[in-house]
Amino acid sequence: MGEINPYRLKISQLRALVAIADLGTFSDAALQLDLSQSAVSHAIATLEEELGVILLSRGRQGAVLTPVGEEITAEARGILQSLAGLCKLAQQFRGLQSGQVRVAGFRSVATHLLPTVIARFQQQHPQLSVTIDEHHHYRDVEEAVRQGRADVGFTYLPTSPDFRVWELLRDRYLALLPPSAAGIQSPIDWQTLTQYPLILSPADDGDRQVLTRYLGRYGVSLQPAYEVREDSTIISMVRRGLGAAIMAHLAAEPIPNDIVTAEFAEPLERVIGVIVLAEALQTPAVYAFLETLKAVWLRADNEPATAVEPS
């Protein structure tokens, strides 16, 4: 027998074979495929002729796959599934002809992380647009995503099980001291830090709440001399010698050269993650944005972070 030419096989033949395997009769397969029974019989006959094997045993009880028919049917299913995946992928790119991605985050993310992502995204998809909604508190970001006012959010981890989550980065906190503190030892201890008037964000700020929870583990309570919401204002006050601050490194950037920075002996960091609503059907534009984000900021092997409510 000659060698089988795979390019002579037809998708219609494979569909007929799988339909018969699923339904058990030629007539039921014909009904499902919206074909005549003779067309289905012809498809199977020509497929068996091309392959040179018998795929189905016909009888009064219907059609039963032969042993080789079972193996070939399994391969046919895989081929049809691959074709469906190909069409799905093409459909996604057809959906990328226009669209918008709504991003919610806090200032340091919007300032230092998003511009690189958006620049790459618009190089790849110039027909798509991105809007950014800044919030002072990470809880407001989560609520915007939860209520459908944002497609993608940047928040602190761990978070709610309402979201699908990827860890983006771990941002350590620093002590920022005035220029007069030059030569101070790092890591710094709390007793040394509290010798300075403290400039902190307000009690309702997300960073302040993270800091308060952290210090509570060590029995430390800080009494700020000033409560200031804007990061740039805090930096300016430290430079003027009005006190010391505790800020996440990303929020403090760019740190002026004359400000003295010190690490803490105990690990102190905020974990920043990317969230989308777990049960939402995302648009192709959102999927494309997430792929760009992962390519720019995430390790290829990074798994979704655990989604639990912080204590």
UniProtKB/TrEMBL annotation:
Domain HTH lysR-type as annotated: residue spans: 9-66
Domain of life: Bacteria
CDD domains found in the cross-reference section: PBP2_LTTR_substrate
Tagged with keyword Transcription regulation: yes
Keywords, in A-Z order: DNA-binding, Transcription, Transcription regulation
Keyword DNA-binding: yes
Similarity section: Belongs to the LysR transcriptional regulatory family.
Protein name, as recorded: LysR family transcriptional regulator
Native source species: Almyronema epifaneia S1
Lineage: Bacteria, Bacillati, Cyanobacteriota, Cyanophyceae, Nodosilineales
